């Protein structure tokens, strides 16, 4: 490990950046240095610009994939190397705004009915019933299920924040059935490797198999269930601020995007088409002649 890499790692650890962020930033900077065959200390804004052009034009990376590379370089040069460079030296691409595809209540039920495994049914039901991220479901421990207070404790979710979410009585029944069948010790949903929780990839694969069995044409991922959780809460009258707390969003604007897809918002206004006078009925087409 070079001294610069070690110093950047220490800077990220001091600021308590998430482990995945640390790994991503180191990988991005390493790729940047290897591309030019030089230490990042010897590279400047023009090299950063050339690197971003290469990622966009040669590697065909989308805007969402360019942002981690830019974030890593910003951290390296501004924090670790203390370069007094402006935002213009790290241009962020404008990402297209896409709304998630939302499952209806009936589609969620159909999806759950297509999961034959009790373990994976419990995992994906927990993701929907509590609005958890895939990593948060995977890292639940048995002690996080508090049936006395009817809450689930989420330890160190995104941005290293703890929070509590509701424990659905129906979900509690499912988890108790799963507990009697699997008898998990430490992790609520253990993985194939002893002492480790289930992997995110295993959950994604189970989700994809269930989608195929269900026959639902909409895309379904574990995160789709989280989107459905927030949208269904909003459609049934839950306050946006309360949804923000349950989802663990840092900003209310992140939660507010569900206002654009909830039927309680989109369908609350009557279309002017419905206010038009009834048109005259269309004339009936002439009857076809009979030849036999």
UniProtKB/TrEMBL annotation:
Domain of life according to the entry: Bacteria
Domain Core-binding (CB): 1-81
Gene Ontology terms for molecular function: DNA binding
Alphabetized UniProt keyword annotations: DNA integration, DNA recombination, DNA-binding
Comp. bias regions, Pro residues: 278-292
GO biological process: DNA integration; DNA recombination
This protein's record includes keyword DNA-binding: yes
Cited Gene3D superfamilies: 1.10.150.130, Intergrase catalytic core (1.10.443.10)
Region annotation (Disordered) ranges: 272-292
Domain Tyr recombinase span(s) in chain numbering: 98-271
Family assignment from sequence similarity: Belongs to the 'phage' integrase family.
Protein name per Swiss-Prot or TrEMBL: Integrase
Organism: Paraburkholderia steynii
Lineage of the organism: Bacteria, Pseudomonadati, Pseudomonadota, Betaproteobacteria, Burkholderiales
């Amino acid at each position: 490990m070079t001294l610069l890499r070690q110093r950047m790692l220490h800077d990220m650890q001091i600021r308590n950046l998430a482990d995945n962020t640390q790994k991503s930033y180191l990988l991005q900077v390493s790729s940047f240095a290897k591309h030019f065959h030089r230490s990042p200390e010897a590279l400047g804004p023009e090299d950063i610009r050339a690197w971003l052009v290469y990622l966009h034009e040669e590697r065909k990376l989308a805007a969402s994939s360019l942002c981690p590379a830019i974030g890593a370089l910003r951290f390296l040069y501004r924090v670790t190397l203390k370069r007094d460079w402006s935002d213009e030296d790290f241009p962020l691409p404008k990402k297209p705004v896409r709304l998630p595809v939302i499952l209806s209540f009936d589609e969620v039920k159909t999806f759950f009915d297509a999961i034959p495994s009790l373990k994976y049914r419990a995992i994906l039901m927990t993701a929907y019933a509590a609005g958890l991220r895939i990593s948060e479901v995977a890292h639940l421990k048995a002690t996080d299920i508090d049936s006395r207070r009817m809450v689930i404790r989420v330890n160190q979710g995104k941005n290293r924040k703890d929070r509590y979410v509701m424990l659905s009585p129906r979900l509690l029944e499912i988890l108790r059935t799963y507990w009697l069948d699997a008898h998990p010790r430490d992790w609520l949903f253990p993985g194939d490797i002893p002492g480790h929780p289930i992997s995110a990839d295993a959950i994604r694969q189970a989700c994809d198999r269930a989608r195929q069995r269900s026959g639902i044409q909409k895309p379904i991922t574990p995160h789709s269930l989280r989107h459905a959780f927030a949208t269904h809460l909003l459609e049934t009258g839950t306050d946006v601020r309360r949804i923000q707390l349950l989802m663990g969003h840092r900003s209310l604007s992140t939660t507010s995007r569900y206002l654009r897809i909830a039927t309680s918002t989109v369908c609350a206004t009557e279309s002017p088409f419905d206010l038009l006078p009834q048109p005259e009925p269309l004339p009936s087409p002439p009857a076809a002649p009979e030849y036999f």
